[in-house]
Amino acid sequence: MTYPPNPDPSGQGGFQYDPYGSQPGSQPQQPGYSPQPQQPGYGQPSQPQPYGAAPQLPPPAPGYPPPYGAAPGPYGPQLPKGLSVASMVLGIIAVALFCVPFVNFVCGILAAVMGGVAIKKVNAGQAGGKGMAITGLVLGIIELAWASLWIILYLSGAATIGMAGSGM
Fold it and tell me: Hey, how many other C-beta atoms are within 10 angstroms of the C-beta on 135?
């Protein structure tokens, strides 16, 4: 491989070797070759585009989601997930507050009911977020079982203390 001659023998700037051939003169020219091929369609537009017009995107490759900003297409519109999210959040709050007897019971009831309704809507195709709805339903049921056990133990302990205090 030969290098082009150095036009600046002093070494103060001038030509530098470019191994990728992006500088002019770094590689020999071939007939019919131009370093930057002209691509049609990149000149001035013939008519101005209105501001509201969206660019046309190519269709997505099979097996991949659509590009950002593309119309929903075969994936359909996004379904509301509010009930599923509320169910899951209430279930998490109920489990986090398992030491607070009546707050966790109320949150557990709400999480289980909202989770059941959300699952019914998801199965009917009216809502999204099936995983969150199932999570809220399961956490609500677990918390209801825990709170019910706590209430039963509390009432049985109160009954035992009441019987001990009466002298029976």
Answer: 19
